[in-house]
């Protein structure tokens, strides 16, 4: 069911708030990644304020959906989204990367409830997502006694869903394709993978460093259902996630085309901003740009 | 004189020529079935080596709880972490050269740092793999795994103890590495032999020992045979089988070192960084004594029969006796 304009606007507002918090926390930390988290703000707003079944007061809710962040270096966007969703006070975001903080430079499950896993070394998230999805399916088929419900859907498909956000550069890791093969073989339709296709990695543009295209065809060849959307359009992204829920014969990957550095026009698409934080002065300027852009982001897919 | 520790309840055939011989990997097959019966969350993953790892014994019993990974050890490790996140108790099996040889970083990040109760089962470890040669003779796994915070490291002495180690590992909250061998070796412990993850097992205990032989894995049997022979020539010793290298049973190790004054360690692993190193690290800080570490001397293995290779690399009964005699003469 389509989102109302009001819902869309509300999610866009959340994405703006997440972007502002990202800038503030990166400036306070003095290190960290800028481009990826900004580009992912719309997707995280969609997850934490619309898509996920979750309870910020009860991060271990048994029936929750799982969100695995494979490209752990983008975790500032997750911290910001979790804080705005009520997992912890937004002020705590300013402890990012500081000694004693629960907000480690790369996410650690045991330090902050709600993170689901520990990540940073690339290529490992989809394997873990596949393990969770496989376990959920074992449990549901055991409870039901049959892998198929009376409406013709595998029971695993109507239970909790497992989302796995990956980077695009990360697709260069061999382990990803081991996991893609496994999920395809086992038809893990309770997985929706999301690739943040922002085309940058540390050493340059992905297609220069190590070409990934044709990425969609590669996933199709491994028995995945592939959707491509504008990842900075919350309504389009949510529609793709809904479509994935209707695909029950194979896992789905959403290739989400995002603009790295989105929201700060001066740094959009600039790979130099992959791995560095804004200075204090730049931070002030970036916040101003995010606020000026507020409400003016053209929503061409709406 | 027979100085076998009666509390160890070793096999009546312990020194007999016809003692039964089975590979420790058989204990993996049996143990996972027992653990699987006790806990419905136990699952077994295998990377295209179901027969030789004995994972197929579990597969036959619990086909729905066996997960074939194909030849993909990195995916196997992180996927096992995912299964554990969702409440399963995964045992993942492949040759130690690949598991943890190939998937070390996945084990470090998704299992150890994440403190997932994944049981990493490294098969065909050591030179006694035999004809396969150096690529498949894992000699660095104990070192790799014991360095990881939160990891328990167990090297069973025989198939029976391996069975018990698997059952105990299934009940342990954290990650565990268990090392298994390919070759059939004497089954000298019995179902009555005590096994506790935190405890070393005294096999041989003389009143006035000159040397303490500390061994791990199936070479603990060779250490016991060496001690018995030495006793007949008047050299008395203690033999400790240290199955759990981490956490180390410091109390028992310390007592043996204090009583004997000299220590010989025996392992089918690089002498650098493995079991002997763990003992040397501990004793150097708590009770420095002269130590001789028998292990592979900073080199790779090669093809041959297990017996030829253990003799060549100085890990057979005769070499253990030589090392003990050298201290006894001091």
Automatic annotation (TrEMBL), chain A:
PANTHER family reported for this sequence: TRANSKETOLASE N-TERMINAL SECTION-RELATED
Protein name from the UniProt record: Transketolase
Organism from which the protein derives: Candidatus Kaiserbacteria bacterium RIFCSPHIGHO2_01_FULL_53_31
User: Which Pfam families does the UniProt record give?
Assistant: Transketolase_N (PF00456)
For this UniProt entry, which residues form the secretion signal? none
Query: What region holds the Transketolase N-terminal domain?
Result: 13-285
Keywords from UniProt, A to Z, are: Thiamine pyrophosphate
Q: Which SUPFAM superfamilies match?
A: Thiamin diphosphate-binding fold (THDP-binding)
Family, per the entry? Answer: Belongs to the transketolase family.
Q: Which domain of life is it from?
A: Bacteria
Which InterPro entries does this chain map to?
THDP-binding (IPR029061), Transketolase_N (IPR005474)
| Cofactors, names only | thiamine diphosphate
